[in-house]
Amino acid sequence: NHLTQSNKDQQQTIDHLTQSNKDLTQSNKDQQQTINQLTQSNNNQPKDQLTQSNNNQQQTIEELSKSNKHLKKTLNEFTECKYTCSIIFSCSIFVLIMFLTKLLPHFKRLFESIDQLYQ
Question: Would you say the pTM of this structure is higher than 0.70?
């Protein structure tokens, strides 16, 4: 009798452990399925699109850098031209003043002659 009860208790423990093992196996399968789904989801992320977007941004940065260098060069050329034009303008004004200074006595005589005519 005692052995029969012990045998039943052991069988009950075996059944309980067997059920627990089945539950753990199912849980393990569920976890593996979740891992597989996450892996699949991760693999489906648009890596190529992000890489292409990154490449496009890099290309845009390079183009803007070239454009910036070109604009700096143009600005330097414009600054040089501005200085040259300023020098030419100043020289032109100087020459004009000199020319008018040379002509001033002639104008003075002309006006004096006109004035004498009307007197």
Answer: no
